[in-house]
Amino acid sequence: MAEAEKKPHLSLVDVDAHIFSGLIKRRRVTPAEGANDAAPQEPTSVRRKPLLERFTREQRTSAILALLSIGLLFLVWYLGTKYRIEFYIRFKNVPTPYEVFQQAMDVGLSAKFFVNIVNSVRRILLGFFVAILIGVPLGLVIGRYRYARDFFMPVIEMLRPIPAIAWVPMSIMLWPNNEASIVYITFIGAFFPILLNTVHGVHSLDGVLIRAGRCLGAGELQLFWNVILPGTLPHIFTGLAVGMGVAWVSLIAAEMISGQFGVGYFTWEAYSLVNYPAIVMGMITIGVLGLACSGIIHLIGILMMPWLAYAPGSKK
Hints:
Blueprint: H1 2-6, H2 12-26, H3 31-38, H4 57-83, E1 86-87, E2 89-90, H5 97-108, H6 111-144, H7 146-159, H8 167-174, H9 178-204, H10 207-215, H11 220-258, H12 263-272, H13 276-304
Antiparallel strand pairs: 1-2
Helix pairs in contact: 5-13, 6-7, 6-9, 6-11, 6-12, 8-9, 9-11, 11-12, 11-13, 12-13
């Protein structure tokens, strides 16, 4: 009883103070730790990488090589015009890059030249899309069915060797105006590469895929949509890329002969006026437009065929 009376009496305030002091002793928060706790840290997954790190090493190397090739072309042009090289190839009358640049500043920013570009792009798109709408389905049918191949291929092989420029007089007689005839020439240039590559794609398709579709109960339309068309898409896009290049060649030839607007007409008019810088500017414009169209086709092909990234030989 005496020992119990000797123990000090602890109030609730003393108990709380004792517990709080024990917690402070166990963990002392430094100013640096307090600052880190106060400022919310951004999750590492949200942090954005620098722009160059978003591209792989192969992509950066490809971009550098592409710029080097274009730069080498302009370097040869500059050196040839500067020193007026005349060794089989004569640079005597070729305008310098600076003269072409001056011409681009004078004419390239004008409304008339913009109208020429718009007309050429509109014609190329009309002829090219008509070639796709006719060439791809017809190529699938010819590649799939023997009787269709026997019926169509003799006519196709007879018309295919005729160059597009040889169709210009006939197209003027066939179509009611020059605009329709130029679009027709563009269509002729793009049609045959698209058609033949589609036929080749159907012939290259593995027969096991078709037999597997048949065993799974697929009808003819389902085979076309789910087996034949996806398996032929790589060849179709190869035909689209080739057809776009031939379509530009055909368009420029048609515009030079019977056009009133367009980049081809602008280039031919510059030749008639002996304006050499304008000729080179027209050629560069044609090349840039063709490169842009081919790049768009390549990009669409990547988006429509993502499975090619996992094909043998590809790098993912």
